């Protein structure tokens, strides 16, 4: 029975990480109907940044995660300004292909500069530390990321639902022209939303190198899983994305442990197919 | 006429390069209610959108309180004091009345001023106060129109552009909404009103313009237009 809870805990931790990546993706989709295929690569950028800061200057990932958040906010904002803004009002395909291209570009720049090697930071404040709660081993790095993930989700949710800026973001999503009439500069809102989506994965990604190795392909899986979480939770719904992410984390962990590790993604995508067949709008979608 | 608030000079505008409005000029004086009337498709909404800055004229100029706004965008014209209540209300459907009204005051940061304006619009439409936490899409057409007008007032405009207020409302409600427009005007807001319901609009207006296929075909005081045989024949079925 102890093993069951251990697997469940591991699944929940992974789920929370997926949730942060998914929240950013969901926010961007909800406001501007753009699927950011480079979202996993945004995570990779933060991981590399954190890794190199730790490797060269011995800066701990706990500190680097803030740098990651800020840096990827800028990456997101620039992505909007230089790429996405040119695709608004054109076919939905153009934004999709543009972000897909960006993901290839970022991946290959890292491959070219940093080699395909897996890199893990040694001797970080949290790395390798665990504690024992009634026979269940709680890994400290995952616990911290889980807490940060929940905090980030709360902040984003609160910002969107309860502040004037958040209403302006929602207004822009519902009726861009009417939002303009309220004096809302919708271009700025788009820029901010892309930046915020980036900052979420930036902060999470910055924490990762103390237990998850960074390599040029690390983003791909996260992009795919985050997309599944967003679609399953209902596009644009942050609580939906959280619930779907936790479900997926759990299914992945249980299938990997009780069936076989090679089957874990069969279970994940199987669950996705079933949910989308029964509820095409996702769990919380309107 | 008092000081000119809005001056539109020979503007041409349209969609995708095809002009819909041909060399239209008009003037609105401070404190006036001016009605722009005409049939569906005459170009009334296009005029309003151009003045508000949702689109810019191909040529000609628009000035507000002496300042050229021909090339200005909508999120900037509202800062000067122009508020446009668009055709079809265009409320934010999933937000509450309160949130819609707060967004109407998005450009002001002064909490006290916003609260005073909230009080003012709730005074004008007491019904909205009872429903302030209700989501906009669940309101009736009349209530939605009240929210749209109230939202338009929240930026404390000096010029209010009202587009087809009567659309989809039953006659008794149209009368109520028109009364509200008069009350708003009396509180010092200049109003440009666009209507298909020609008689109702001219009854509350000081002056009017008749627009037909993108051109002004007749103008004058509201009384002159109401008594004009052409207007009566074409728009009132008399």
Shape descriptor of chain B reads globular
Order of helices and strands of chain A: HHHHEEHHHHHHH
* Total individual domains of chain B: 1
- CATH evolutionary superfamily of chain B: P-loop containing nucleotide triphosphate hydrolases
The helix content of chain A is: over 70%
Structural shape of chain A: globular
Give the N-terminus to C-terminus distance of chain A in angstroms: 39 Å
**Low-confidence runs of at least 5 consecutive residues of chain B:** none
Quickly give the structural class of chain A: mainly alpha
Strand content of chain B: 25-35%
Q: Which oligomeric state applies?
A: heterodimer
Number of strands of chain B: 10
Which architecture of chain B per CATH? 3-Layer(aba) Sandwich
CATH class of chain B: Alpha Beta
Total helical segments of chain B: 10
Biggest sheet strand line-up of chain A: 1-2
CATH topology of chain A: ABC transporter involved in vitamin B12 uptake, BtuC
Secondary structure tally: strands of chain A: 2
Concise overview:
The complex is a heterodimer of chains A (286) and B (238). With 286 residues, chain A is mainly α.
Polypeptide structure, described:
- The complex is a heterodimer of chains A (286) and B (238).
- Helix content of chain A is 73%, strand content 3%.
- Chain A is mainly α and 286 residues long.
- Chain A has a single domain (2-278), classed as ABC transporter involved in vitamin B12 uptake, BtuC.
- Chain A has a two-stranded antiparallel sheet.
- In chain A, helix 5 (140-162) packs antiparallel against helix 8 and helix 9 runs parallel beside helix 11.
- The model of chain A has no long low-confidence stretch (mean pLDDT 91).
- Chain B has one domain: Rossmann fold (3-Layer(aba) Sandwich), CATH 3.40.50.
- In chain B, the strands form 2 sheets. Chain B has a 6-stranded mixed sheet, sandwiched between helices. In chain B, strands 2-1-4-5 form a 4-stranded antiparallel sheet, with helices on one face.
- The longest helix of chain B is centred in the C-terminal third of the chain and has 16 residues, at 171-186.
- Chain B is globular, with a radius of gyration of 17 Å.
- The interface between A and B is medium-sized, with 18 and 25 residues.
């Amino acid at each position: 029975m102890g093993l069951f809870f251990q697997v469940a805990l591991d699944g929940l931790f992974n789920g929370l990480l997926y949730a942060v990546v998914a929240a950013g993706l969901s926010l961007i989709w909800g406001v501007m109907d753009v699927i950011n295929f480079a979202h996993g690569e945004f995570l990779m950028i933060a991981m590399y940044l954190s890794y190199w800061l730790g490797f060269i200057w011995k800066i701990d990932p706990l500190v680097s995660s803030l740098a990651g958040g800020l840096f990827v906010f800028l990456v997101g904002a620039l992505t909007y300004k230089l790429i996405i803004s040119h695709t608004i009002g054109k076919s939905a395909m153009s934004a999709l292909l543009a972000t897909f291209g960006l993901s290839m570009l970022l991946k290959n720049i890292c491959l070219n500069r940093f080699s395909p090697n897996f890199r893990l930071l040694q001797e970080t404040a949290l790395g390798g530390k665990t504690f024992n709660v009634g026979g269940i081993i709680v890994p400290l790095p995952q616990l911290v990321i889980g807490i940060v993930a929940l905090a980030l989700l709360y902040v984003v949710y609160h910002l969107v639902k309860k502040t004037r800026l958040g209403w302006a973001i929602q207004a822009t999503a519902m009726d861009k022209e009417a939002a303009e009439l309220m004096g809302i500069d919708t271009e700025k809102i788009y820029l901010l939303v892309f930046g915020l989506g980036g900052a979420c994965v930036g902060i999470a990604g910055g924490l990762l190198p103390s237990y998850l190795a960074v390599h040029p392909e690390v983003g791909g899986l996260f992009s795919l899983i985050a997309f599944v979480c967003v679609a399953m939770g209902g596009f644009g719904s942050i609580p939906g994305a959280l619930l779907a992410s936790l479900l997926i984390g759990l299914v992945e962990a249980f299938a990997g442990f009780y069936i076989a590790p090679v089957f874990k993604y069969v279970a994940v995508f199987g669950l996705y197919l079933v949910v989308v067949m029964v509820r095409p709008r996702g769990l919380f979608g309107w | 006429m008092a000081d000119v608030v809005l001056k539109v000079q020979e503007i041409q505008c349209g969609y995708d390069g095809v002009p819909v409005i041909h060399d239209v000029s008009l003037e609105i004086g401070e404190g006036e209610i001016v009605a722009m009337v005409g049939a569906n498709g005459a170009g009334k909404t296009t005029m309003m959108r151009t003045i508000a800055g949702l689109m810019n004229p191909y040529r000609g100029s628009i000035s507000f309180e002496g300042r050229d706004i021909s090339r200005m965008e909508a999120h900037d014209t509202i800062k000067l004091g122009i508020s446009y209540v668009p055709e079809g209300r265009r409320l934010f459907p999933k937000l509450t009345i309160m949130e819609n009204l707060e967004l109407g005051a998005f450009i002001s940061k002064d909490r006290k001023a916003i609260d005073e304006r909230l009080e003012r619009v709730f005074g004008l439409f007491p019904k909205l106060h009872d429903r302030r936490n209700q989501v906009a899409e669940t309101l009736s057409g009349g209530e939605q129109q009240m929210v749209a007008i109230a939202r338009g007032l929240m930026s404390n405009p000096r010029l209010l552009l009202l587009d087809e207020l009567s659309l989809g409302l039953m006659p008794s409600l149209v009368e109520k909404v028109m009364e509200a427009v008069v009350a708003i005007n009396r509180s010092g807001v200049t109003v440009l009103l666009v209507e298909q319901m020609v008689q109702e609009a001219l009854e509350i207006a000081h002056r009017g313009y008749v627009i037909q296929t993108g051109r002004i075909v007749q103008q004058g005081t509201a009384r002159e237009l109401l008594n004009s045989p052409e207007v009566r024949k074409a728009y009132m079925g008399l």
